[in-house]
Amino acid sequence: MNNVIHEDQMRVTSIPFTSTSMVIFSGVPLKRNSYRANSGKYYVTIKVDPDSIPVPPAVGQHWSIKGQRQIEDVTSGDYVMQQHTYESPEHIECNLPETGEQLIRFIAKEGHFKGIGESKARALWEHLGKDFHSILRHDTPESRSRIGSILSEDSINALFEGYAKYKNLGYCNWMSEHKIPASIQQRLLKHHGEQSIEAIKKNPYVLIGFGMSFEDVDCVVKNSDFDISTDDDKRLSAALEVALRKEIEKGHTYTTQAIVRPYLTNLLKEKELVTKAFMAGHDKAQYILNFETGTFHPTAQLLMENVVAKRFKTLACQNNLFDADSDSAYYSALSELPYDLTKRQHEAVATCLDNAVSCITGGAGTGKTTVLRTALRAYSKMGFEIHPVALSGRAAMRLHESIGFTTSTIAKLLREPPVEPSTAHPNHLLVIDEASMIDLPTMYRLVNHIHPSVRIVFTGDPDQLPPIGCGKVLADIVLAKTIANTMLDIVKRQEGSTGIPEYSRLINQGVMPGQLTTGAIHFHQTDKKDIAQTCSKLYQLSPESSRVMAPTKALVHEINKLIQEAVNAKGNRIAFEIHAEKLFLDLRLNDAILFTQNHYDKGIQNGSLGSLTSIESSGESYGEVTLDTGSKIEISQSVLDCMELGYAITLHKAQGSQFPRIIIALQKGRIVDRAWLYTAITRAESEIHIVGSEDDLKRITERPSNSHKRNSYLAELLQQV
User: Fold this and answer.
1) CB 3.0 to 4.6 Å from 599: which of 84, 604, 631, 637, for a disulfide?
2) Distance between CA atoms of 547 and 550, rounded to whole angstroms?
3) How far apart are alpha carbons 127 and 386 in whole angstroms?
4) Per residue in 657-671, is it b (16+ CB within 10 Å) or e — as a string?
5) What is the pTM of this model?
6) Phi, psi values for residue 561, rounded to 5°
7) Of all helices (H) and strands (E), which one includes residue 681?
8) Residue 262 contacts by C-beta under 8 Å, 6 or more apart in sequence?
9) CA distance readout (Å), 31 to 11, 38, 95
10) What is the pLDDT of residue 1?
11) How far is CA 579 from CA 43, 61, 89, 112, 574, in A?
């Protein structure tokens, strides 16, 4: 390694290899202070954290690099070329050429300016001259008219699209210089556009709202010339926001000063600043203090709870709706059933028809689906337009199979036009399945997306894990007892039953099952160190129908690697090629795949599952994943970055879904309680394997659910007259 700091200018010649932790891209050097390439006696490779660069690298871009470099000779046939490698350089910047020959060559070579060669680029520069940038900065009819004599409509579109990608480079480079990660930059630019730098200078703590930590923003302020003192209200309000956010991330919608104070003290260090932060937050209405209880309610969460409660209470007042039409539809729906309903199930169907908002709740095997299917058939006969939704794609597919109506995910419904009554469809019903998963922000968005006249039916099990986001909507509805709710609690034992409903019911009641292995449930006494290996061996017995549930990402990762090595060791891996050197990502053809981010435009949600069915590269595609729903997803760079092995998944990723055969990695820990185990067991359709120790199973079963400790104000609001 040469310890001297070097500088290079280069044009990117190879498509970057990207992972979540490293970007590797290469190029040929440019002559100093010029944009002409050198003779090619050496080429440059940069290895860098993807969050430290202003834009994703692409062929044709111009970059400046400063830092320590390593030099080695690379032989290619009879020719020896020097390889200059920068590992995490101290400065890296992407440049948009400003004038003349530099700009002409850039447009001609950069892949984003499709269909514009050097002659057209030169004619464009000669025609526009110094007005080039001002015209391309704004895509208007006047701007298009100026260049219409030189370029076709397709080329004009490509020019504006390509230029738009780079016009923010100046802002990005400034933010990179100030150590603002690229992911934060893109969110900020999307929100503030050309005013991004001004927004940061006005209040650098705005960066926290885009994902940057308080400590990192403090460092940005300290190392820059921002006029922000340690006791500035902007800084104190930001610290309070971060402290309140910590509690919201735990699922609470309100907290207390005693809980928030330690967070603030850790951020601000001084007691005087902590006291001042509470005062600043109150003045800026960051929270509302409930003087009767002494609780702190973050304003946004309190607003959402009030809006949701108001809608529910308005609908709850609309009862006694069961009329002659309802009665006729009810009996017509019953006549189509191949069996009789229980008395409680009859009550549940009638309750759904009699109230504008109602719930069907209960554990596995209690008949919630039967009641819902019957109620929806009656509503359909009454002319209602029915909108059944679930949180995940897999859950929505399962709901469709259960009720026979067209279903969608909540995300898809929210992207469509609001649900409003019309002449053709005056009456609408929203059905929310697996409602225990619905958090407060999602419910708030839903009630704002549907007309006040739209009826709502919830189905779910309030004893399952609470939502990932804040609040516990279904549990609060049940707790408040102000909304019509039919709790189905009788498990109908059938000959040849799996025993899963009965087993899960005992766990939910905190009762250790008398027989740990019974029916289709198998308990495997296993030492902690052998849990991953045992799960892998059990998976191999029936790979097509199995999924492993584990409580932590670390255990999930360990199990995934063991299973991949056991069932798909020889699968071909996704490959990238840089200067004839192959680099591999350890995702293999036919691997089970989990997606960890939302890409709604591509049909992917966080938690979507599928199989890697192609690794054939073509252009910007690296292959294809076939989702469990049957949809096929092309693997672009952004899709690739959120793909993981999916043989084993965390329970939160599985919530709302069911699998024929599940394997539960039972390992005691902070999040593993009775509700966790109960929810895991109810994910199985026909067979369960529990891997762990009997002592841990006993402690977990007898330990009360953490969800009961979640602070939520919705139930109290629902009870207020």
Assistant:
1) 604
2) 10
3) 59
4) bbbebbbbbbbbeee
5) 0.80
6) -65, -40
7) helix 674-681
8) none
9) 10, 6, 14
10) 45
11) 10, 17, 21, 22, 17
**Which tokens go with 477?**
């509805």
Could you report the per-residue pLDDT of 26-84, keeping only the tens digit for each?
A: 888 877 655 566 666 788 888 888 777 777 777 767 788 888 888 888 776 666 778 88
Indicate left, alpha or beta for 116 from its phi (over 0: left) and psi (-120 to 50: alpha).
beta
- Alpha carbon distance, N-terminus to C-terminus of the chain: 74
Instruction: Check: CB of residue 661 under 8 Å from CB of residue 538.
Output: no
C-alpha to C-alpha distance for 303 and 210, rounded to whole angstroms: 21
Q: Which residue has the tokens 């059905």?
A: 431
Q: How many angstroms separate the CA atoms of 136 and 154, rounded? A: 15
- Contact of 208 with 241, CB cutoff 8 Å: yes
User: Which residues lie across from 462 on neighbouring strands?
Assistant: none
Burial of 271 (0-12, 13-18, 19+ CB in 10 A): exposed
- Identify residue 691 by its one-letter amino acid code: V
Q: Are strands 546-550 and 659-665 parallel, antiparallel or unpaired?
A: parallel
Strands 42-48 and 357-362: unpaired
Q: How far apart are CA 570 and CA 501, in angstroms?
A: 39
HSE of 89, CA atoms in CB hemisphere, 13 A = 28
Which residues of the chain have a pLDDT value below 50?
Answer: 1, 579
Q: What torsion, rounded to 10 degrees, do the Cα atoms 581, 587, 590, 593 define?
A: -150
245 is written with which tokens? 């956010």
Q: Residue 653: name the closest of 687, 628, 626 by CA.
A: 628
Element (H, E) at 144: helix 141-147
State the Cα–Cα distance between residues 222 and 217, nearest whole angstrom: 8
pLDDT in tens, 269-313: 999 999 999 988 888 888 898 888 889 999 999 999 999 999 999
